[in-house]
Amino acid sequence: MSNGFTLWFTGMSGAGKSTLAQAVAEELQRRGHRVEVLDGDEVRTNLSKGLGFSKEDRDTNIRRIGYVCKLLARNGVIAISAAISPYREVRDEVRRQHERFVEVFVKCPLETLVERDVKGLYKKALAGEIPNFTGVSDPYEEPLSPEVVVESHIESVDESLRKLLARLEDLGFISRNGAGR
Hints:
The chain is an alpha/beta fold and 181 residues long. The protein contains 7 helices and 5 strands. The chain has helices spanning 17-30, 40-46, 55-74, 88-96, 110-116, 121-126, 157-170; strands at 5-10, 35-39, 78-82, 101-107, 148-151. Helix 1 (17-30) crosses helix 7 and helix 3 (55-74) packs parallel to helix 4. The longest helix has 20 residues, at 55-74. It is globular and about 50 Å long.
């Protein structure tokens, strides 16, 4: 059985976390790994129902995701979290609780996020209609030293995926021939 680890995607809403998380999950499964994706929206519906968007509630949500990832990883699963996780302190707290942890910062400028915004959330947030919106009226604290930075505004999903897989190989978390480690 391969050793599990946590792959933690962070970035603002619409940056491409879920898209890239799904792409890497499919590739890792194709290579024979056991993988679970914890998507931020799905977790809020199922695991963190009732939590709001205060800093305390956001931190609780991230701690819950981190705990589930830790359980999965220690049982040989590659746990992939795709949640905004806007606050550096709680991301670092989650990192400390994991033996094998890879932080992926999905970087994208606000202007591009507003252009991409199919749900119209940024437009509403910028108009003051949505309070505590990450990156607009609530902070997003970029990671200081993530293992991987992808720039979704200039890289294709395939380019970001290749960069991420190469980094996992360099770290020794997956092998270059596709088999687990």
